[in-house]
Amino acid sequence: MIGVGNYARHKYAPETQSCVEQGYNAYVDLYWCMAMTAGTDPGAIAAAVAVAVKSDTVAEIVADVASSSPLTLGPEGTKKC
To answer: Where are any strands of DSSP class E within the chain?
Structure first.
C-alpha cells in the first residue's frame, strides 16, 4: 500500500502513511447515512444517533473501519452534505 486515503493511518496498517502525511492535501473519511420512511421523526433519530456515537462500541467499530472518531452531523448538517 502506498498511502492511506483517510486523514489518519489505519489500525490495520500503522506503518503506512496517510496521503496527508505524504504532503497531499486530500483525504476521504467515511460517512454512514441512514434513510427513513416518510413521517419518521428526525429529532427522535438524531437523539438515538447522538447516544450511539458516544458509546464505546460504536467508537471501536468506527476506529477499526475508518481510523477516526464517530461524529454525527444531525439532520440539518446531513442535508448540507
So the answer is: none
Q: For the chain, how many structural domains are there in total?
A: 2
What residues are paired with 4 via a beta bridge?
A: 18
pTM for this model (two decimals): 0.49
Domain extent for 69: 42-79
pLDDT in 10s for each residue of the chain, 81 residues: 788 887 788 777 889 998 889 999 888 777 777 778 889 998 998 898 889 888 998 888 877 776 666 777 777 776 654
In this structure, the number of other CB atoms found within 10 A of the CB of residue 67 comes to 20
What one-character DSSP code corresponds to residue 17?
P
